[in-house]
Amino acid sequence: MRIFSKYTWRFPFDKKEIFLTFDDGPTPEITEFVLSELKKYNAKATFFCIGKNIKNHPDIFKKIISNGHSIGNHTQNHLNGWKSENTTYFKNVLEVEKTLQLCNFETLKLSLFRPPYGKVKKAQAKEILKRGYKIIMWDVLSADFDTLISKEECLNNVLKNTKKGSIIVFHDSIKAAERMKYALPIVLKTFSEKGFVFKAI
After folding, report:
1. How far does the chain reach from its first CA to its final CA, in angstroms?
2. Under a CB-based contact definition with an 8 Å cutoff, are residues 26 and 176 in contact?
3. 47 near 19, Cβ under 8 Å?
């Protein structure tokens, strides 16, 4: 049993559904690569976006939405909750909502949140939940951000651990690009051929 029962770690495993998620975007070229690959398989995903990246790349952000994917809040500046004061952290979460308004996305209501690094204090989480967000974690970590692993290891992390209802973490970031760009097309192909459907949260 999970200690943090109010967090979503995976979905019921009675259907052949997989939930791909992408953290840290939008990022020029990299996010667009992801969108292109997803489209090939009519796959939907969830993008946990950093506020400052939405502000810098509103056109790419708009493309994510127009392609029918879900959007989640990943803080304005990719803050580590464990290293942040509670008030500062919560303000940074809310800053994303202000950014959406400034970029003319005021009709978009965010209901999903993922803490950067998966690190959030209990009090911080309580405030975020009170605001109406669902905190989405994962059960499959690709580790595409880890420069010490090979692209093959990244792929294997996903292939060997993904089950029905799994939430998989990839990153549409520069740091993760090489490993993600190798693994994602194979993951999409492999599980599609096995009859899985990729859904947005």
Report:
1. 22
2. no
3. no
> Rounded to an integer, what distance in angstroms lies between the CA atom of residue 65 and that of residue 71?
7
Angle (CA) 201 79 101, round 5°: 60
φ, ψ of residue 6 to 5 degrees: the values are -85, 0
Q: Indicate which residues carry an active-site annotation.
A: 23, 171
Helices (H) then strands (E): counts for the chain = 7, 9
Residue 171 pairs with which residues in a beta bridge? 23
Cα(80)–Cα(116) distance, integer angstroms: 6
Task: Supply the pTM of this predicted model.
Answer: 0.96
Are 39 and 33 contacting, i.e. CB atoms less than 8 angstroms apart? no
Q: SS3 of 60, please?
A: helix
Q: pLDDT tens per residue, the chain (201 residues)?
A: 344 568 999 998 899 999 999 999 999 999 999 999 999 999 999 999 999 999 999 999 999 999 999 999 999 999 999 999 999 999 999 999 999 998 989 788 899 999 999 999 999 999 999 999 999 999 999 999 999 999 999 999 999 999 999 999 999 999 999 999 999 999 999 999 999 999 999
**20 neighbors 37 (Cβ within 8 angstroms):** no
Q: Which of 165, 170, 152 lies closest to 191 in space, CA to CA?
A: 165
Residue type, 128: I
